[in-house]
Amino acid sequence: MVQTDVMAQDGVEKKVEVFKNKNFLYLFISSLMSAPGYYVYIMGAEWLMLSITDNRFFFGLLFISASIPRLLFLSVGGVLADRVEKKVILFLTDITRSFFVFLVLLLIVTDLIQAWHLILLAGLFGISDAFSYPTTDSLTAELLNEHELQRGNSLIQMTKQVSPILGPVLGGSLIYFIGFTGVFTVAFVMLAIASLTVWRVKIQASEQEEIKESAFADFKKGIQYIKANQLLQSIMIMGFVVNFFVAGPLSMGIPILVKDVFQENALALTILQVSLGVGAILGSIILSIRKDFKKPGRVLLTSLTIFGVLYALTGFAFHLYLNALLIFVAAICLQFINIPLVTLIQRTTDKKMIGKMMSMLMMVSTGLVPVSFLVTSILMAFQIQITQIMICGGIVTNYSLYISLPIKN
Questions:
Q1: What is the arithmetic mean of pLDDT over 124-139?
Q2: Please, where are the H alpha helices in 53-85?
Q3: The domain 215-408: what is its CATH number?
């Protein structure tokens, strides 16, 4: 098993600053460049698509083209993360992303850019995501000691939470002041820096068994590993419930609440979106600066209970500012669910299986987000109000407590 140079001494409190671990620092800086750089590109690609064609079907394909390959290749990415040196995977994903952005730059400069170019590149970015997501979490577990995992996961998660806020703000500003060439140049530089930084991670050689099984057999072994572990089964179910019943209704519900229920303008939408983003960031910061929970399972389930109640109350749409407060606190609770979930997997899973387990969690949670959007859209097409969907989602989230009792122990 790979270990960092900083080890807890006997009789001394196991509290080590993760930034003293130079290898984790490189991973953190890489994530700090990669995640926002990716969102800068996304902002540029979305606005460019709207600028070069009036066909909004193509704009929708931009999201679908990224989502489907991501879902299809997540399991492959998890298997690969357990078979190949992880920093190599992250280096290749970031350097190929920067290459894709460079291609967009060339097409813009030569005035050859077309809608299908952006759709194709969105699919390639989706494939890259499928390899990057499970590998980042798996490498975090490899670089840090067990008692550092909560802080490390919180910091990595924080870069992901900052990105949807910082990326569009930076991307939109760059488009306004220096145009598409400027925004894609910045995205290219950020992704290139991310790839070069993660390459500096030094991993001590570990004893590894010779890999004789095929990738498919390795994937089946991951499924069997989950079937034999009741805790992992509960984690997977909880990850599915929280994302499937929350992601689509909440993302679609916020704009609809502002427009149809509160009958407010874009400023009101910004207030709710910022409440969600700031709450998520604050939750990550809190977890990154406090010591490990002695009973993380209890904290996770308590947070899930509070989140379910707040989410259901949001559906009642009492008042704009009250909803902003509910969403803010719910976002904090969501981090107290997501980060301990990842940490539990890292702590209780065989090191050789972490990559596969992280990809499985991504598949049943993040990977199914497009399905959540689809189901929410279908329900609304049958005249079911978004407020009703959100209230039911909160109830189902709390009901998942009954199937998550192994986590408590």
A1: 86
A2: 56-81
A3: 1.20.1250.20
More confident residue, 54 or 286: 286
pLDDT of residue 125 exceeding 60: yes
Residue 11 reports pLDDT greater than 70:
no
- Are 156 and 136 in contact, with CB atoms under 8 Å apart? yes
Distance CA 381, CA 231 (A): 37
Mean pLDDT of 228-232: 83
**Segments of the chain assigned to CATH 1.20.1250.20:** 18-198, 215-408
> How many residues would you count in the chain?
409
pTM across the whole model? 0.70
The pair phi, psi for residue 11, each rounded to 5°, is 80, 0
> How does DSSP assign 259-324, residue by residue?
IIIS---HHHHHHHHHHHHHHHHHHHHHHHHSPPPSSHHHHHHHHHHHHHHHHHHHHT---HHHHH
Token pair in block for residue 76: 């492959």
46: Cβ–Cβ under 8 A, 6 or more apart, which residues? 59, 62
